[in-house]
Amino acid sequence: MAFSSRFSAFSFVFFTTLLSFFVISSQQPVLDLPEQESVYQVLDTVNPTIPWRSLFPDDICSSAPHGVVCDYFIEPTTNGTVTFQAETVHITELSFGNVSDSSPNPPCTPNSTLSPLLFTSFKYLRKLFFYKCFTVTRVSVPENVPASFGSSLEELVFIENPSLVGSLGGIIGNFTNLRRLVLTGNGFYGTIPDKVGRLVGLEEVTLSRNKLSGGVSLSFAKLKKLKILDLSQNYFDGNVPEELGNLTQLLKLDLSNNGFYGKIPESFGFLQSLEFLDLSFNRFGSFGVPLFLGQMSSLREVYLSGNSLKGQIPEIWENLGSVLGIGFSGMGLVGTIPSSMGLHLKKLCYLGLDNNNLEGSVPEEFGVLESVSEINLENNNLSGRVPFSAKFTSKVGGKLKLKGNPDLCIDERVSTGKQANDSLRQLKLCRAPDIPNAVLFNGASSSSSSSSSRPFLSSLVLSFVGVLIVLAG
């Protein structure tokens, strides 16, 4: 009897537990209350004018505002003495600030702030995104973000937040899974911490338009998966390390508008996948246009303007038939423009050679570039006849820039046509070429010159006939 009662008690506990398991398993998982409360508080700091709690009173994961994304996970769950795998739900993406009508994220206000809960309450967060949220009120990034923040983070994106200030060392945490670090148009300052080299999964680092300074950290060389590196429009200086040439997966490298000096690293020639290279407006010195560019057959755009590289434009264009844009403005270049540029760069859309010391004629080959939409040759010492037809100038319009070359001339029919722009009208007109003895080439001579040539031709024919008669005899 005792055994029977013990068995019945055991059966009750067992079946009750089993029933509870099936009931829990069949229910839709809901966001736990502390995490939901954290979402409300973060939304309030971004835009306190919207009644988030009344608009989304129930489980926020079942009906969330755009920009708040949840996902399901299978995790160990304990019910009494039994542990089993159960489905749970957590916040995985938080995006704030309208990007477009198709992405109506929770809108920010001029007084938006950065809630500390972002760095403590969402351990499953994969993406954190702010666009034009911190524009008036100064907002500081925490100096000591908890080490637990970012263990699941894959994308950290802050765009156009000029009032968001702080050091990179404060916000870069334990991002073992981070793929995209995009902090552009903000107020970040200081140097790039060496710990960025620990983020070995990074595929994009965009830190443009901040107030960062110092040199390029050698730790970047450890980021073997990196495809985009953009440090433009900051206050970086010093020599660019040769070690960046180890980033062989790079597709884009932008170091423009900084204070880098010295020589452009020869190791960049190893970046055989590189499509976009912008080193313009730095202080790279008198070492000439790098010859290794001719080996980079994947290049689509290369910009070196605003550096004092000097020297001549080298003959490196044979393998660069896919290039779309070249910016060599204000570099102190001398010599002539190679005709091989027009011969090989058939896909060229933009060419900037202005504000140099180039001389000689504009290559005839430039006049047949079918894809070009802008050519700027202003303020050089070019001379001779402009090779562009009326059809070409009509297509390019005002983006054909030639002024500042006093010895260039243009045909009158091109200069006075409707398609001519102000830059073309400022050029002097070419004189009609003198062609001596034109009759010998085109037969368009006057009657006198034509008749004077006939006796000569007749005597030449008779002499030739006489030779044949002598030989026949």
TrEMBL record:
<dbReference type="InterPro" id="IPR032675">
    <property type="entry name" value="LRR_dom_sf"/>
</dbReference>
<dbReference type="Pfam" id="PF00560">
    <property type="entry name" value="LRR_1"/>
</dbReference>
<feature type="signal peptide">
    <location>
        <begin position="1"/>
        <end position="27"/>
    </location>
</feature>
<keyword id="KW-0732">Signal</keyword>
<protein>
    <submittedName>
        <fullName>Uncharacterized protein</fullName>
    </submittedName>
</protein>
<dbReference type="InterPro" id="IPR001611">
    <property type="entry name" value="Leu-rich_rpt"/>
</dbReference>
<dbReference type="InterPro" id="IPR051848">
    <property type="entry name" value="PGIP"/>
</dbReference>
<keyword id="KW-0433">Leucine-rich repeat</keyword>
<keyword id="KW-0677">Repeat</keyword>
<dbReference type="InterPro" id="IPR003591">
    <property type="entry name" value="Leu-rich_rpt_typical-subtyp"/>
</dbReference>
<dbReference type="Pfam" id="PF13855">
    <property type="entry name" value="LRR_8"/>
</dbReference>
